[in-house]
From TrEMBL:
One of its GO terms (molecular function) is metal ion binding. Its main location: secreted. Its cofactor is Ca(2+). Pectinolytic enzymes consist of four classes of enzymes: pectin lyase, polygalacturonase, pectin methylesterase and rhamnogalacturonase. Among pectinolytic enzymes, pectin lyase is the most important in depolymerization of pectin, since it cleaves internal glycosidic bonds of highly methylated pectins. Residues 1-20 form the signal peptide. Keywords: Calcium, Carbohydrate metabolism, Cell wall biogenesis/degradation, Disulfide bond, Glycoprotein, Lyase, Metal-binding, Polysaccharide degradation, Secreted, Signal. Pfam families: Pectate_lyase_4. It comes from the Eukaryota. This is Pectate lyase domain-containing protein. The keyword Glycoprotein applies. The keyword Disulfide bond applies. It catalyses: Eliminative cleavage of (1->4)-alpha-D-galacturonan to give oligosaccharides with 4-deoxy-alpha-D-galact-4-enuronosyl groups at their non-reducing ends; Eliminative cleavage of (1->4)-alpha-D-galacturonan methyl ester to give oligosaccharides with 4-deoxy-6-O-methyl-alpha-D-galact-4-enuronosyl groups at their non-reducing ends.
Length: 379
């Protein structure tokens, strides 16, 4: 009996410690130094009203998401015509019911850590919007889902528009009407998106093939984005689309089953693509009439990347996929400083590492920092 009581007590204390721990690991890449709510006492909101209040106020907070917070009220995608534009052309109009809550994300304030507990943290029917000077925010281990998935313009999961020092880690996004992640038009500053799952499986598809088209859109100006260790699957486009004057470093990500294009890099954007796995991706990189500057590491130009960056670059892996060829050396020669604590894993180990670490409920398998994307493949 004594042994059993001791074991129960230990498990209880361990559970309480895990619940109150807050953020796991530290930010790396361009978002290094992001602390979110820092040493604020972790607390759990009781309902959606309190969650919205805590997210939007000016108090530094560590907010624990320990259950589903449901904001829901009431074969191709229809589109919600928000501004009476004519982009739908001569397509017929139809009446429909949709949730207005999803159209505008919760306006998150500065100095927040939003952390899911275990795999229980779900925000349903409402996205998160960080804008107008918001800084120092961590979003970790939360599943955002069901934002009018049947309607284009039905809602964005995570929006940045005029921010700095943002770390998005171990997040899952599924079943949204529009973008899973979007930045712009104002500068989003230094951002890291890591160990996250962008799940494009849907019954409402702009490409009419059960794959989500509107996935990741980088429209911010002067952004510096680290995109690492993510799992992007069952999409058909914009995975990501990058435009305007920004830097994106995409490494050790796993793209799987994309029936359209992954990268679409246009206008002045500089993209460094290395150590990724593209599996069953029809077009790993779109050819645009006004292309940006891209360096995608291949075996033939790896030595060039090594020499200019002064470290070992990693070759991308293509499996049952289209071509990925881009070797604009200006990307490397102008690469900004400040992307710290990164180690790029060889592509042969990426699939296993990503599947083991990306998404919600997997914080125990990695620290959420650089070692999350450099972990050895599990035996």
């Amino acid at each position: 009996m004594a042994l059993r009581m001791s074991l129960v007590t230990s498990l209880t204390l361990l559970s309480a410690h895990a619940h109150a721990a807050g953020v796991s690991g530290t930010a790396f890449g361009f978002a290094s130094g992001t602390t979110g709510g820092s040493d604020a006492t972790p607390a759990t909101p009781s309902d959606i009203s309190q969650l919205s209040e805590w997210l939007t106020d000016s108090t530094p907070r560590v907010i624990l998401i320990d259950k589903e917070f449901n904001y829901l009220g009431s074969a191709g995608q229809n589109a919600i015509d928000l501004d009476s534009s004519d982009w739908c052309g001569d397509y017929p109009s139809t009446s429909c019911d949709y949730d207005k809550e999803a159209l505008n994300g919760i306006a998150v304030g500065s100095n927040k850590s939003i952390v899911g507990v275990g795999s229980a943290g779900v925000i349903r029917g409402k996205g998160l919007r960080l804008a107008n000077g918001v800084k120092n925010v961590i979003i970790q281990n939360v599943h955002i889902t069901e934002l009018n998935p049947q309607y284009i313009w039905g809602g964005d999961a995570i929006t940045l528009d005029g921010t700095d020092q943002i770390w998005i880690d171990h997040v899952k996004v599924s079943l949204v009407g529009r973008q899973m992640f979007v930045s712009g038009y104002e500068a989003s500053g230094k951002v890291t998106i890591s160990n996250s799952e962008f799940d494009g499986r849907t019954s409402w598809s702009a490409s009419c093939d059960d794959h989500h088209y509107w996935t990741v859109l980088g429209y911010g100006k002067d952004d510096q984005v680290t995109f690492a260790g993510n799992y992007i699957h069952h999409t058909s486009g914009r995975s990501p689309k990058l435009e305007f004057n920004s830097y994106w470093h995409a490494y050790n990500n796993y793209w799987h089953n994309n029936t359209g294009h992954a990268f679409d890099v246009v206008k002045e954007t500089k993209a460094l693509i290395e150590g990724n796995v593209f599996s069953e991706v029809n077009t790993p990189s779109e050819t645009d009439s006004s292309p940006g500057e891209t360096f995608a590491v291949t075996s033939s130009d790896k030595s060039t990347c090594d020499s200019i960056l002064g470290r070992a670059c990693a070759v991308n892996s293509l499996e049952s996929s289209g071509e990925l060829s881009a070797s604009d050396e200006s990307v490397l020669s102008s690469w900004p400083s400040g992307e710290s604590d990164i180690t790029v894993l060889d592509a042969s180990k990426v699939r296993a590492s990503v599947l083991a670490n990306a998404g919600v409920g997997k914080l125990g398998g990695s620290s959420g920092a650089s070692n999350a994307v450099t972990a050895s493949a599990p035996t």
